[in-house]
């Protein structure tokens, strides 16, 4: 698999593909080469796993006051008025 397809697989794993990328992904998935399709999907899955591990390893507790501030901000919002 070439570097452009690897980059595309990473974008898919991140959920950050645009219309142009979407078309390129569709070409890979609809292509005649089952090996390329399998390699692409494996790269997407492995990237998602690595991102999940990274997220767990770098997770931090938010400040305790944040919850109270968020709840106060939500409570202060006015519900939309039905017309």
From TrEMBL:
A Pfam family this chain is assigned to: RskA_N
Annotated keywords: Transcription, Transcription regulation
Residues annotated as domain Anti-sigma-K factor RskA N-terminal: 6-51
Matching InterPro entries: Anti_sigma_zinc_sf (IPR041916), RskA_N (IPR053877)
Annotated protein name in UniProt: Anti-sigma-K factor RskA N-terminal domain-containing protein
């Amino acid at each position: 698999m070439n570097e452009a397809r690897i980059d595309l697989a990473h974008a898919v794993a991140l959920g950050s593909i645009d219309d142009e990328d979407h078309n390129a992904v569709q070409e890979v998935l609809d292509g005649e080469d089952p090996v390329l399709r399998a390699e692409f999907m494996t790269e997407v899955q492995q990237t998602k796993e690595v991102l999940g591990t990274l997220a767990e390893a770098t997770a931090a507790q938010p400040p305790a006051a944040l919850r109270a501030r968020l709840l106060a901000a939500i409570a202060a919002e006015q519900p939309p008025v039905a017309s």
